[in-house]
């Protein structure tokens, strides 16, 4: 019985960290635990959150995608740039852009068998160049104000639509991980790729699908960001891949693959979002802010390591 | 126990470093562009805090670190804080327009600092405080006319095209020359993207293209590019027949003006004056006082004659 309780704590450590952050900022800042602020937090986490869905899949595979931040930025530019063709075509163009770049990443990783760290690092740099070429180093303004409703709509007057999109995708993603062969194969490939291949799993196809998924999620995030800013800017997305990876790792997904799930990734995304929001509310000086984010994250991962989730 | 201790210590340091100053009940919420990326922005941040302390107002100063989406998030966080006035130094003058609409609906006045917001956002904000780059271009044109006695051919090296600061400094120079100095002709304009090495290359090309006597003056968008261009001029030995004016002084330009003869005039744009003026206007807005839409601080001309009156810039 006692073992079961400690196992439970070990597996769910991200939720205790989340609870601690909530208590800390709740007592520090009167405005923290308010409906308005939580509407902000939900809106703010949905962008990195969407990217974390694809990243979790890839990290369970034992792969990584460093290019998500730049795919996100490029797709945000595409959805604004294509706006004169209409909102639906522009959204489709952005999604297609993200999926094509994801497919290229996947093909290089799966077929050419180049390490995904290197492939997506190259893609990150290359796509950034593409972004500069596309925006001409200056911001493009959106012309159709209806597009901004995507980000500003609140379901039932309360819940931000982008957050709902994120949570729905997250739920679908978790369902697929748990209940389909694609999901089970993800763990098998991450656990031992050779064994998975010998067991007859189409590893290459599986990896390409997950890179396309990652590209599509980054594109969705970009579409939401563009809707919030109604602008395509060349300075978007330079740090997002780092926050996304940290959030997924915080959620306990193993960088080496074979272990992890999306519900705990959600916890990681929340912790990052709440730290950022809480430190903003407290008005901590920007230099200390970065120092604290860094220290707190290492501390949290250290604690998480102590209570390393059981791999069963 | 140890973990608890680390957590407690972290919390205590956090409390100590968070910008909570108790005084008059005015709270300024600021989101800066990218503090720490250059000395101008770093000094602006320091001066902003000092001035706010001096005036006895509270402040929450955030930094977007050059990321437009982060700035949008920060503007929303500041709205939650019910600040009395919001100061925004835009990372992107366009990307903040939709969120500014929400700030306006919340009834919080917004002061745009240093770099302008897109014109579609003018109706959503209460004003702008910062340097007047058009006037700086005009001043540089006037000094150029002095340096050349109203006669001569001038080449221009400008900042990054597409950035409003670069374009306004160029525009002010051109307008003033065309309006008042018919003897001066601007024969070519090239961008060097605020970069010293690029400016040196651009100047080398100018010197190859135009022989001695074919150009008399060089106008640069700031001293940083000016110093690059001067390097090129010196290595070609063309320094005796060329005069330069610049739209903004940096420390290197200050030294150059004192030691050499090429840099005739530049303009003293101080981040400290910039920040002080911004805080003053922001406090007026928070108190509900009327302010002008464009609030420009003074950027005086500096030449050999009056350079002694100015301290060497620390930026």
From TrEMBL, chain A:
InterPro entries linked to this entry: ABC_transp_permease
Coiled coil: none
Keywords carried by this UniProt record: Cell inner membrane, Cell membrane, Membrane, Transmembrane, Transmembrane helix, Transport
Originating organism: Halanaerobium polyolivorans
Stretches that traverse the bilayer: 12-35, 41-60, 67-85, 91-110, 117-135, 155-177, 207-227, 239-255, 287-304
Keyword Protease among UniProt keywords: no
Alphabetized PANTHER family for the sequence: ABC TRANSPORTER PERMEASE PROTEIN YPHD-RELATED (PTHR32196:SF21), ABC TRANSPORTER PERMEASE PROTEIN YPHD-RELATED-RELATED (PTHR32196)
A Pfam family: BPD_transp_2
The protein's name in its UniProt record: ABC transporter permease
CDD domains referenced in this protein's UniProt entry, alphabetically: TM_PBP1_transp_AraH_like
One example GO MF annotation: transmembrane transporter activity
Highest rank taxon of the organism: Bacteria
Localization: Cell membrane
Keyword Nucleotidyltransferase: no
GO cellular component: plasma membrane
From TrEMBL, chain B:
Keyword ATP-binding: no
Keywords assigned by UniProt, alphabetized: Signal
GO molecular function, one term: carbohydrate binding
Keyword Signal: yes
Periplasmic binding protein domain ranges (all copies): 28-290
Pfam families: Peripla_BP_4 (PF13407)
Record's GO cellular component terms: cell envelope
CDD domains: PBP1_ABC_sugar_binding-like
Cellular localisation: Cell envelope
Protein name: Sugar ABC transporter substrate-binding protein
Source organism of this protein record: Halanaerobium polyolivorans
């Amino acid at each position: 019985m006692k073992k079961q309780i400690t196992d439970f704590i070990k597996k769910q450590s991200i939720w205790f960290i989340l609870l601690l952050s909530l208590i800390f900022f709740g007592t520090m800042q009167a405005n923290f635990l308010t409906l308005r602020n939580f509407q902000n937090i939900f809106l703010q986490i949905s962008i990195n959150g969407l990217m974390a869905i694809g990243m979790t899949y890839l990290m369970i595979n034992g792969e990584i995608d460093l290019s998500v931040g730049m795919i996100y930025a490029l797709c945000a530019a595409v959805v604004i740039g294509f706006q004169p063709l209409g909102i639906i075509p522009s959204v489709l163009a952005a999604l297609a852009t993200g999926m094509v770049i994801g497919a290229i990443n996947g093909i290089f990783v799966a077929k050419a068998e180049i390490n995904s760290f290197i492939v997506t690092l190259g893609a990150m740099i290359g796509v950034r160049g593409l972004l500069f070429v596309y925006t001409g180093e200056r911001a493009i303004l959106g012309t159709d104000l209806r597009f901004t409703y995507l980000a500003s709509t609140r379901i039932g007057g309360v819940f931000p639509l982008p957050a709902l999109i994120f949570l729905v995708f997250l739920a679908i993603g978790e369902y697929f991980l748990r209940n389909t062969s694609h999901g089970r194969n993800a763990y098998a490939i991450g656990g031992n790729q050779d064994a998975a291949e010998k067991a007859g799993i189409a590893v290459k196809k599986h990896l390409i699908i997950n890179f396309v998924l990652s590209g599509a999620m980054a594109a969705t995030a970009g579409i939401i960001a563009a809707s919030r800013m109604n602008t395509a800017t060349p300075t978007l997305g330079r740090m997002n891949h780092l926050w996304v990876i940290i959030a997924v790792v915080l959620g306990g997904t193993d960088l080496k693959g074979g272990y992890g799930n999306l519900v705990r990734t959600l916890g990681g995304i929340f912790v990052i979002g709440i730290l950022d929001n809480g430190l903003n509310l407290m008005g901590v000086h920007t230099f200390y802010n970065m120092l604290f984010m860094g220290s707190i994250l290492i501390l949290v991962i250290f604690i998480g390591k102590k209570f390393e989730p059981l791999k069963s | 126990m140890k973990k608890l201790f680390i957590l407690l210590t972290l919390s205590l340091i956090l409390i100590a470093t968070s910008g909570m100053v108790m005084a008059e009940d005015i709270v300024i919420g600021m989101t800066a562009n990218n503090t720490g990326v250059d000395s101008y922005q770093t000094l602006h941040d320091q001066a902003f805090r000092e001035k706010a302390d001096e005036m006895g107002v509270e402040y929450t100063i955030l930094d977007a670190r050059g990321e437009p989406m982060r700035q949008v998030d920060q503007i929303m966080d500041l709205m939650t804080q019910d600040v009395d006035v919001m100061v925004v130094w835009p990372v992107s003058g366009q990307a903040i327009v939709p969120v500014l609409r929400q700030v306006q609906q919340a009834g919080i006045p917004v002061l745009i600092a240093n770099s302008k917001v897109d014109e579609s956002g003018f109706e959503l904000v209460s004003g702008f405080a910062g340097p007047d780059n058009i006037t700086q271009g005009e001043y540089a044109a006037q000094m150029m006319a002095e340096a050349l006695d109203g006669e001569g051919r001038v080449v221009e090296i400008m900042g990054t095209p597409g950035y409003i600061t670069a374009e306004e400094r160029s525009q002010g120079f051109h307008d003033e020359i065309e309006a008042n100095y018919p003897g001066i002709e601007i024969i070519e304009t090239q961008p060097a993207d605020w970069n010293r090495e690029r400016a040196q290359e651009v100047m080398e090309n100018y010197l190859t293209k135009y022989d001695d006597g074919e150009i008399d003056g060089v106008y640069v968008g700031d001293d940083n590019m000016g110093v690059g261009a001067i390097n090129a001029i010196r290595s070609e030995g063309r320094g005796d027949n060329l005069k330069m004016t610049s739209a903004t002084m940096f420390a290197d330009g200050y030294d150059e003006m004192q030691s050499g003869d090429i840099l005739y005039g530049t303009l003293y744009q101080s981040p400290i004056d910039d920040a002080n003026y911004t805080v003053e206007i922001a406090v007026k807005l928070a108190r509900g006082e009327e302010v002008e839409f464009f609030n420009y601080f003074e950027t005086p001309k500096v030449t050999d004659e009056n350079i002694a009156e100015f301290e060497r810039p620390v930026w």
